[in-house]
Design goal:
The structure holds three protein chains of three kinds. Chain A is mainly alpha-helical. Helix content of chain A is about 70%, strand content about 5%. In chain A, β1 and β2 (about 75-80) form a beta hairpin. The N and C termini of chain A lie far apart (about 95 Å). By secondary structure, chain B is mainly α. Among the domains of chain B are: about 1-80, NADH-ubiquinone/plastoquinone oxidoreductase chain 6, subunit NuoJ (Four Helix Bundle (Hemerythrin (Met), subunit A), Up-down Bundle), CATH 1.20.120.1200; about 145-175. Chain B is built from six helices and no strands. Chain B has helices at about 1-25, 25-45, 50-75, 90-115, 130-140, 145-175. The longest helix of chain B is centred in the last third of the chain and has 31 residues, at about 145-175. By secondary structure, chain C is mainly alpha-helical. Chain C has helices spanning about 5-25, 30-55, 60-90. The chains are: A mainly alpha, B mainly alpha, C mainly alpha.
Chain lengths: ~625, ~180, ~100
Amino acid sequence: MEYILLAVVFIPLMVSIFLNSISSLLNERLTTFITINAALLSFSVSLLMFGALLLDKFKPISLEMYTWFPDPEIKFEFLLDGLSGTMMLLVTGLGLVIQIFSTSYMSGDPRYVKYFVYFNFFVFSMLLLVMSANFLVMFFGWELVGLSSYLLISFWSEKKKAAKAGSKAFILNRIGDFGFLIALMMILNTFDTFSFKKVFETTLLNQPENLDLIVVFLIIGAFGKSAQFPLFSWLPDAMEGPTPASALIHAATMVTAGVFMLVRISPLLQFSEISSILVISVGLLTALISAFAAINQDDIKKVLAYSTISQLGFMFIAIGAGAYVAAIFHLVTHAFFKALLFLGAGAVIHEMHHEQNIHKMGGLKKKMPMTAAMMGIGTLAISGIPPLAGFWSKDEILASTFAKGGIYYGFWALSLLAAFMTAFYMGRHWLLIFHKEPANNIDNIHEAPKMMTRPLLLLGIFSIFIGFINTPFFHGLEKVLHSTLSDVEITHLPEGIAVVILALISIGAGFTGLGMAYLIYIVDIFSYFKFEIPFLKEVRSLSSEVLYLNKVGHYLFVEIPKSFVRKVAVVIDGLVIDGFVNGVSNLFYKSSKTISVTQSGLVRNYVVYFGLFLLLLVSLFVATPLIVL
Amino acid sequence: MLDLILFAIPSLFVLAGALIVIFAKNPVHNSMGLVLTLASLAVVYITLNATFVAMVQMLVYAGAVMTLFLFVIMMIGVDKAEQTKEEIKGQTFLVLGTLILLGSLLAYVVINSGFKWDLWFPAVDYSIEGTPDLIASTLFTGWVFPFEVISILLIVAATAAIALAYDTKTRKDDD
Amino acid sequence: MIEVTTDWYLTLASLLFSIGFIGMMIRKNALIMFMCIELMLNAVNLTFITASKHFGTIDAQVAVFFVLVVAAAEVVVGLAIIVSIFKKQETASVDILRSSKG
């Protein structure tokens, strides 16, 4: 039974290898056939496994492939529990849906096969990451998703921007991975094992001294992968990749790997107060900054990218507040509605002939009713309008934060602000694309093909109903994660009337945000009342430039090192090293010039030298006392 | 007494010839001085019981080598008198300095130990005759290998001399 | 009664060598410099013969033969060089030959 786990993980890898090895023989139809069926198989097996897990009351299933290293024991092992089961279903399920979408979106691309090679490789890496039973295997998956993300971002590498964005994503991810790697070393040093089970058991009995440090380094890894402040600027740039890939990697799965990892290490995290504070404050900061940045973006995908960062911030807030179930819940719902939004955006981009500026769209709802409706559902879901998915998860996060009390009231208020901003920019996004009077001639725009709208429909339905897996009335996800988080103290929703009031407040925030977006961007209330907002231009540029963080980062980490290195090159290389080398050669040149005066070329001079040295020799003989043996 | 005369007179001729070699202006005179030195040395060799060496000295040095010298002198002309004026800058000082050093070294040695040379071993009380018989038996037994090597040296020298002379000639013909 | 000892011969040889060496330094005619070399070689030969008598061994006289041969070879090559130089430069002076100047 356990060995079926291997099928889930390795089917995508085998498909990837298979497609790559015979790529020259394949046309689009064959590729589609192979990859879709493989994804279907993978998803079915996942469902089967999840069903088996469900029947067994989520008792973790573990599988040891082999022992890699005997002492300290490092095994290649997999683990299926509620957490990884949820992620497994999410990855394979969304992978299937998005691959169906991709077959239409990517059709006609000269590197069609290559795309699916990378795509399946990504699915494999992600599954490796989530199914791992120890830190090392997780790290392999962690690095491989980084690699496949790089490959997919710079998929159209002939575009210079795409190639650059890929490198940027890779490098910024490396910073986070560096933290993860340090944490790995410390874990091996402290616990003498990588296995989650043993590490957690040891920690529960008595916490090691450097636990805080280990957790902080792991969190740095999570920040890098999940695009949290200050390592988030790669994600908006990553939108250069194909949109379906963005939907899977940069919205639904890979970027949530950090959240997944933090939930996975929650037995460690609960003992580290400082890490929780770090996670929640960085999550909040990220949520606010990126929500603010999303308000004035022009690119249809960049809005979604910043929105993703913001929602990831929410998940981190949940983790920092100890609401691990809420974090995973939001991860799941976000995966659906963000994938929906991205695929919808992909459909729009596809039909607009790769026009991505939302100011050049408008009025598309008549031309693309299906896409508009589905993206509308996504927008409502992310804004937290009940009974859609986003409402349940976001409200659970907010309520759990509130329930913690103390300083968390402040966190709650700021999160609410971020939720309001989310509704505002998502409302703006949808209205500008679909509702506003068209700016350009859109007569020849029509609905996306069925291969695109059907996945949208599917995701739309899920975006509506997926929220019901964990409501205050039915704690489904909590039961799923029960065995995983059995030793972890989880923040629960507040009791009684408080939860209703909190829900009402967050619904209010959502509606207010959407309403304000309608008033400002459609009714244009400010010009109606002839009201001038002070500093509007400055705020706008502040938003579109992401508080100038990119520029500052560019200046700090690119320009200053560049000029420093240039100075070093001039001073160290030019003056010191060249000076030394030239000095040595000059020394020899000059000294030999001086000495060569004696080399007059005149035989008789040489005779004199010869005589002088002969005399010197004789003098030595005379001066040396004879040693008679 | 006879020993003294047999030593002193050839020695004087040796030194006189050497001085002629270095001070005479005419190259022919120089070579004649060299002949005098070499011949007198042969006499000295005889007083040292090296009769065969003395004969070879007379034949090879005073005969063949000097003939070669004279031949070259005649070939390049004796009338091109060498200018005695010193032309190299500093050479006079260098020579004088060297001479002074030599003189002072000599003076030191003489003052320290007179004309007694420290030879480590006293002279043997028998005398050997440098007859062709003895020399040949030594040369062709213990010294065969150097002998063969020196024969190669001679061949090389002869070849070199031919090459040097021949090369210039053909080049002139080509011009 | 003055006895002629080994020291006397060695003194003579050293004087001869010194004269040859002084000649090397002060004469600029290549031919005469060669003659000076011959003088010095003969001083060495004299030393060899003296040693032969002093130590009562014949090997020193054999060495003299080798010196003779080397001197003869040197004279042959040296004179050939002088002749070819003279053909080019119409003089036997060594002072104008400065091609090895550093």
